[in-house]
Design a protein that fits this description.
Layout: H1 5-12, H2 16-27, H3 31-39, H4 45-51, H5 86-96, H6 106-113, H7 130-143, H8 148-156, H9 178-195, H10 201-213, H11 243-257, H12 266-274, H13 305-323, H14 326-329
Length: 332
């Protein structure tokens, strides 16, 4: 897919956290170019603003998953949740490409000072929620923290159908969740990419097979689309599943492992393609409610730079793989 020049210029005229990915994934710029842009994330724009909010004890907003003072406050009764505490900020900084060296000493500070709101557990040991643990696993690997408990946790907590579900820990479900499973495999992929440790690869592949067996969209029981969230693309998606977020993960897997696209992605790809606007952009749906440090993407109904980056790169990947396959090149 050829990105219209106005769209490409619009994407390049963006925060360094997005621009370096546009340069790498859409423009095909040499590593020296996009790596230089990536290095700016820590000193300019979104990344610099989040780094400036870090507390002296290594945390953000005084808490691990929720800000200090959240429970019992009026904010706790409002829709959604605040996205300003440590776990969410580390997730953003890591995914935006901040070099871990910029946060030297943070892993140690969090080990000493940060406890989960759930049972006061130590930060790098994780807690019981699979999504929280996936973010902590990836961020711990990035910052060089000791996360061996989490490395063991994921294979041990897979459900019989192959995936994960945060509600399983409370005994409320024995079936995997699309949301939980995607977050789990994303965290495990990030861990493996950073550390080179393949000990969780089998478990990750099992979770990915769970999603692929449902063609990223459909219930195993009825064959119906699992929910409206599949087609409602949003950035930041936080924990939220969508066809776009899932396909973006499978693109990452294929590039990391040197594999070709699985044909079971085709229907999710069609959903991504259908959401593309005539001008080559994707629109923001309803942002997840809750307090943020600042806005990082478009308002509801407006063209989203982040979703446009993701949508464009997954279609480029899919279409280029199809055009270069032996079937596409044959005369049959």
């Amino acid at each position: 897919m050829s990105t219209p020049r106005p769209v490409l210029d619009w994407l390049l005229d963006s925060d360094p956290s997005l621009r370096w990915q546009v340069e790498r994934d859409l423009v095909g710029a040499p590593p020296a170019v996009w790596e230089a842009t990536r290095a700016r994330v820590a000193t300019e724009g979104f990344g610099a603003r989040l780094l400036a909010e870090q507390d002296a004890d290594g945390q953000w907003a005084g808490g691990a998953f929720f800000p200090a003072g959240f429970f019992g406050s009026a904010e706790a009764e409002a829709p959604g949740q605040p996205w300003v505490a440590t776990t969410w900020v580390l997730k953003d900084l890591r995914e935006w490409g901040v070099d871990a060296a910029v946060l030297e000493g943070t892993a140690e500070k969090l080990a000493a000072n940060s406890r989960w709101e759930y049972e006061d557990l130590p930060y790098w040991g994780g807690e019981v929620d699979v999504c929280i643990n996936s973010y902590t696993l990836a961020s711990g690997a990035w910052l060089g923290a000791h996360v061996s408990q989490l490395v063991a946790w994921f294979p041990e907590h897979r459900l019989a159908d192959g995936g994960w579900n945060c509600e399983a820990e409370e005994g409320d479900s024995v079936r995997s969740s699309f949301h939980s499973t995607l977050n789990a495999v994303r965290g495990m992929l990030a861990y493996e990419r950073i550390t080179g440790d393949t000990s969780m690869r089998e478990a990750r592949h099992g979770g990915e097979e769970y999603l692929l067996s449902r063609r990223l969209m459909f219930r195993a029981s009825t064959g119906e689309v699992v929910g409206d969230f599949v087609t409602r693309f949003v950035y930041p998606n936080r924990h939220r599943y969508s066809a776009l977020a899932a396909v973006d993960h499978f693109r990452d897997v294929a590039l990391f492992e040197g594999t070709t696209p699985d044909p079971r992605l085709a229907e999710a790809i069609d959903v991504v393609r259908a959401a593309r606007q005539p001008d080559g952009t994707w629109l923001q749906t309803t942002p997840l409610p809750g307090r943020t440090w600042f806005d990082v993407d478009a308002r509801e109904g407006e063209p989203s730079p982040w979703l446009t980056l993701m949508g464009t790169r997954v279609l480029d990947w899919w279409d280029s793989s199809a055009s270069s396959s032996p079937v596409a090149d044959s005369e049959d």
